[in-house]
From TrEMBL:
Protein name in UniProt: Site-specific recombinase XerD
A GO biological process held by the record: DNA recombination
Listed SUPFAM superfamilies: DNA breaking-rejoining enzymes
Ranges where the Tyr recombinase domain occurs: 216-393
Keywords: DNA recombination, DNA-binding
Organism: Salegentibacter echinorum
MF annotations from Gene Ontology: DNA binding
């Protein structure tokens, strides 16, 4: 019961041995006559400390910040003490300190949160997404080891300084550019939001952190480049195969995973009586329906009985993503196309050169790509120079007609 307990809080300082004019600040908690100290991790000038008032003298910015920290600590310690009493737990200096620091809830650590996320989301999120979370986890472990010399941290100990420190740590890694850093920070924010929703933390410090992505130019092939790749005769058969599958994606807009998974069950007769691809995007599970253009059908016919897919339901002999991109780089080098080709370049090419540049409305392109928001398509679908030129020619013609009418009236 409360009447059987005595609880008090005071604040003391301890001078630094090598800097006697500075002192470390501590909160001293006393329960039933037994005391324990908690470091506030603050250094203060000795001559400004008023022990009687447990405050730093003066009205400087430093004094206001230290005094605010003292008031907040005092309020939190009383709240901690009251909480233990309400829960009927044994109240000691150790349990108050442990609850205050978060160490009485050992499962509410960053490592526990990450493992919980793996367990709950491992079967919901795609393999690639979970693989990215694992990379973020490894970077968090590296940061903890480098900055704090530990392997884990309690969630309530994560503050805004911790977040900024993690960002700075990521920026020291030679393999990461700004957008890579922001993707890891984005996943960290999602993890902390999960902890907030689970009521494992009262406040989510990552809410204040703003993601700052650099705008990236999408790589796509213009019409002459696409024709060049289509018409080239390669000496290596493996380059021919990967070129053909790349071109197929240029005329369907399918992402790598969806092209690799394509099988006979995905071929349907569409509303117009022609062959369509009916599938779902592996990344988002969004339904996609794509009319098969002549160029794409030609490639499907060409590989119908290919040995690599013989005995399977697959429609195309797609290599691994790594190998495919490796061969595409070789193709670009052979053809002297000074662009960093990857399989995803085909998707961008479909959105720009194949569809938008030929007058297909962006709303239709969005449906073909399987986007749920038009704004996503606007990022992918670049307006190429030839389209700008043709649009301006139409504008010039309209302006000339208006000018001619005005002149005839005069």
């Amino acid at each position: 019961m409360r009447t059987s307990q005595t609880f008090s809080i005071s604040f003391i300082t301890r001078k630094k041995k090598k800097q006697p004019d500075l002192a470390l600040l501590y909160a001293r908690i006393t329960v039933n006559g037994k005391s324990l100290e908690i470091s506030l991790k603050r250094t203060i000038p000795v001559d400004k400390w008023n022990q009687a008032a447990s405050k730093l003298s003066g009205s400087s910015s430093e004094s206001r910040q230290i005094n605010k920290k003292i008031d907040e600590t005092k309020a939190q310690l009383y709240k901690t003490y009251d909480g233990l009493l309400k829960e009927g737990l044994l109240v000691t200096t150790q349990t108050v300190k442990a609850r205050f620091l978060g160490s009485d809830q050992q499962h509410y650590t960053l490592a526990y949160l990450i493992n919980y996320h793996k367990e709950k989301m491992g079967k919901v999120l795609k393999y690639g997404t979970m693989k990215n979370y694992t990379t973020t986890e490894n970077y968090l472990k590296g940061y903890l080891k480098a900055q704090y010399h530990t392997s884990d941290v309690y969630l309530k100990q994560i503050d805004y300084q911790f977040i900024l420190g993690f960002e700075s740590y990521l920026r020291t890694l030679p393999s990461l550019q700004n957008n890579g850093v922001m993707k890891h920070m984005e996943r960290f924010k999602k993890l902390m939001r999960l902890a907030e929703h689970l009521d494992w933390i009262e406040k989510n410090p990552t809410k204040r952190f703003k993601l700052r992505f650099d705008q990236v130019d999408m790589v796509y092939l213009n019409k002459p480049e696409l024709e060049k790749i289509k018409n080239e005769i390669f000496e290596k058969p493996v380059l021919t195969i990967n070129r053909d599958i790349f071109v197929f994606a240029c005329y369907t807009g399918l992402a790598y995973a969806d092209a690799k998974a394509l099988n006979n069950n995905h071929l349907q007769i569409g509303i117009d009586g022609n062959k369509w691809i009916y599938t779902r995007r592996s990344k988002t599970n969004t339904a996609v329906r794509i009319p098969i253009l002549k160029e794409a059908q030609k490639i499907l016919d060409q590989y119908r009985n290919h040995p690599k897919i013989d005995g399977t339901e697959n429609l195309l002999p797609v290599y691994s993503n790594q190998k495919t991109n490796q061969y595409l780089k070789e193709i670009a080098k052979v053809l002297k196309i000074n662009k960093k080709l990857s399989f995803h370049t085909a998707r961008h090419t479909f959105a720009t050169t194949v569809t938008l540049a030929n007058g297909v409305p962006i709303e239709t392109v969005s449906k073909l790509l399987g986007h749920t928001k038009l704004s996503t398509t606007q990022i992918y679908a670049r307006v190429i120079d030839s389209k700008i030129s043709s649009d301006i020619d139409v504008l010039r013609e309209k302006l000339n007609l208006l000018q001619a009418k005005e002149n005839s009236i005069d």
